[in-house]
Design a protein that fits this description.
Strand order of the largest sheet: 3-5-6-7-8-9
Helix content: 40-55%
CATH topology: TIM Barrel
Number of domains: 1
CATH class: Alpha Beta
Number of helices: 11
Largest sheet: 6 strands, parallel
Strand content: 15-25%
Distance between the termini: 18 Å
Length: 233
C-alpha cells in the first residue's frame, strides 16, 4: 500500500510528538503492508506548517528509519485547510503537492458543500488538482454528495480514510464512507494515521473488509495504482 495521508512527522501538528512515536508508527504501517508514506502535516491556521521545517523533519525521520532498519519510503506533502488551499499562491502550494500536481485538501466537518467548487476552480487556475480528504466526515457533503460528484467528474480526486471505514468516528461516518465506495466515488484509500497503537490492526482489517466487499482489484486501485500514479505526477 502507498499511504497518501499520514501525520508521521513528529512535532509539527497533532500527529506523532516524538521521534520514538514516529518510529513506532512507521513500524505499525510496515506491518500493515505499507511500503511508501506521503507525510502530510496539517497546513492550516491552527498548524501553519513551514515546509522547509517539514523537509528537515522528513530527512531526520528517514535517517532514523535507516538506523532502525525500518523499510519505509517517505515523500512529503501537506494536508491543507480549505482556507489555505485558496489563499496560498502557486509557489507556496507547489511545495506541498503530491507528485508536483495534486494537493491534499481537508474537508472539515463544517465545510460547506458549495466550497468544493470554489476550491476546485481556484486550484485549477493554478494547474493543480485537489484531492479532497475524508468527505465522509463533512456534514454538508454527507447530506448532499452532489457537489462532490460534480468536482470529481471535473477531475478532482476523492480520498476516504481507513479510520472512518473502521468506525473510529462513529456509525454515521462509517456508513457515509461505505456509501461513497458503493457509489464509485472514491479514488484513494489512506490511513490518516496520527499515532502508533491501533494503526496496524485497523488498517489491515479495513483492507481485508474492502477486498471482500468489492474485490482485491478495487483495493489495489485505491491503495497502489492510483497513489502510484499521483507520485509519478
Amino acid at each position: 500500500m502507498i499511504d497518501t495521508h499520514c501525520h508521521l512527522l513528529p512535532g509539527l501538528d497533532d500527529g506523532t510528538r516524538t521521534m520514538k512515536e514516529a518510529l513506532s508508527l512507521a513500524r505499525d504501517l510496515v506491518h500493515a503492508g505499507v511500503t511508501t508514506v506521503v507525510c502530510t502535516p496539517h497546513r492550516s491556521r491552527r498548524f501553519p506548517t513551514d515546509m522547509a521545517t517539514a523537509r528537515e523533519r522528513l530527512a531526520e525521520v528517514e535517517a532514523a528509519l535507516e538506523s532502525a532498519d525500518v523499510s519505509l519510503g517517505l515523500r512529503l506533502g501537506a494536508e491543507h485547510s480549505p482556507a489555505f488551499a485558496v489563499s496560498l499562491d502557486r509557489a507556496a502550494l507547489e511545495q506541498a503537492t503530491i507528485g508536483g500536481r495534486h494537493l491534499l485538501v481537508e474537508l472539515e466537518p463544517d465545510t460547506p458543500a458549495h466550497a468544493l467548487e470554489t476550491i476546485f476552480e481556484s486550484l485549477r487556475a493554478q494547474a493543480l488538482v485537489p484531492v479532497f480528504a475524508h468527505p465522509e466526515r463533512c456534514r454538508s457533503v454527507v447530506q448532499d454528495s452532489g457537489p462532490l460528484a460534480a468536482v470529481r467528474e471535473a477531475g478532482a480526486l476523492v480520498q476516504v480514510v481507513a479510520t472512518s471505514v473502521a468506525g473510529a468516528w462513529g456509525g454515521t461516518v462509517e456508513r457515509a464512507a461505505l456509501a461513497l465506495f458503493d457509489a464509485g466515488r472514491v479514488d484513494l484509500l489512506a490511513s490518516d494515521s496520527h499515532r502508533p497503537g491501533h494503526t496496524s490492526r485497523r488498517l489491515r482489517h479495513v483492507l481485508e473488509s474492502l477486498a471482500r466487499r468489492w474485490g482485491a482489484e478495487a483495493v489495489r486501485r485505491l491503495t497502489i495504482e492510483t497513489p502510484g500514479a499521483l507520485l509519478d505526477g
